[in-house]
Design brief:
With 355 residues, the protein is an alpha/beta fold. It has 12 helices and 13 strands. The protein starts with 5 loop residues before the first strand and ends in a 7-residue tail after the last helix.
């Protein structure tokens, strides 16, 4: 490894999303390799809380809609970058990419969201791009950007304890994700209704925080479908793996987005079978036999029925998923690839003073 890099990670979103989770794991991987990472992020955000909790320096910047304070904040950030002798700016959003350009330092772009990239003027300053999935890499290629600059580095995940030996009726089928139309909760409940009408013995468990849907709305739909007695609403859960351990089968019913899927990784690492739609990057986590078209509740119900008819298959799929997590999504591979990409970006950059 070359001399330790001094990296400024710029992330301006307030919430803890898949994008943020990727940024946090990336910072920890770089830190474990001896590189020095500081965060530029708004106060009161998930990134600021993470920086404080994990011992990273934090330089405040205005929120995404606070344009008036940005010029002064940039001057302060330039001074801080000079004082900290920052080698490389890591931008996690388009606005962060602009901030990196204005700092006048070598720029590495990390993309872990579904927004389509564009070849804007700020992209010309990017030395390297990390895509968190092959799906995101495809977005860059479709935008006409140089594929040679893009490296795919899937996020890593630690394996959980092996799943309990064997599932039995009533089977517990779980969906974990924020309550938002794009996550397909309505499709999940319609599939549950179809499955129950066919005589299957199953319970359906939903966990996640309320976003653009309320639990009362989902309860209303369950009552309309006459399945409320078979649906359990858990609300926001602080320990996703504990929820997954209590389920026999995981489902991701998303209608779109899913540039990355932390939930898919967690289901795999938990050693549980996962049925999913083919939205976004989800085909990168599970095989074609476990995929259904987005919004097709009949196809989802049919896949679930086939799985429930063969409990031994439930256990076998879970073991396969756990092995896949160990093979394709190890934290060690993620850390090694991340450090290599940052070191490559720094070696190709032409250092310029921040003035």
């Amino acid at each position: 490894m070359r001399q330790p890099l001094r990296i400024l990670s710029v992330i301006d979103i307030p919430w803890n999303s898949g994008l943020a989770a990727y940024a946090f794991d990336q910072a920890l991987a770089l830190k474990s390799a001896g590189h020095l990472v500081a965060f530029a992020c708004p106060d009161g955000t998930a990134a600021a809380a993470f920086a404080a909790r994990e011992g990273f320096r934090h330089f405040p910047i205005p929120g995404r809609k606070d344009y008036l304070r940005l010029p002064l904040a940039l001057l302060r950030l330039r001074a801080a970058a000079r004082e900290e002798k920052i080698d490389l700016v890591c931008a996690h959003t388009g606005r962060a990419q602009t901030i990196g350009l204005l700092l006048g330092l070598p720029l590495l772009r990390v993309k872990a969201d579904a927004k389509k990239p564009s070849a804007g003027f700020t992209f010309s300053s990017v030395k390297k791009t990390i895509a968190a999935s092959a799906y995101i890499q495809k977005l860059y290629l479709e935008a006409g950007l140089d594929g040679a600059m893009v490296t795919v580095i899937p996020q890593g995940i630690k394996l959980q304890a092996p799943a309990a030996a064997g599932a039995s009726a009533p089977f517990k089928i779980g969906l974990l994700g924020r309550l938002d139309p794009v996550k397909g909760h309505a499709c999940f409940l319609k599939a549950a209704a179809a499955l129950l009408r066919s005589g299957a013995k199953a319970e359906f468990h939903i966990a996640g925080y309320e976003a653009n849907i309320k639990y009362a709305e989902l309860l209303g739909l369950a009552e309309e479908l006459d399945i409320a007695s078979s649906v359990v609403f858990h609300g926001k859960v602080d320990e996703p793996f504990k929820f997954m351990a209590s389920c026999d089968i995981g489902v991701i019913a998303s209608l779109g987005s899913e540039a990355v899927s932390r939930a898919a990784l967690e289901w795999l690492a938990s050693g549980k079978p996962l049925l999913s739609t083919s939205a976004g990057s989800l085909p990168e986590y599970v095989g074609p036999d476990c995929l259904v078209p987005p919004g097709d509740h009949s196809a989802l119900a049919a896949r679930l029925a086939a799985l429930l008819s063969d409990p031994s298959r439930i256990k076998a799929l879970g073991e396969q998923n756990r092995a896949r997590a160990a093979r394709d999504f190890s934290p060690e591979a993620f850390a090694a690839a991340t450090c290599a990409a940052f070191e490559q970006a720094a070696s190709h950059a032409s250092p310029g003073p921040v003035s």
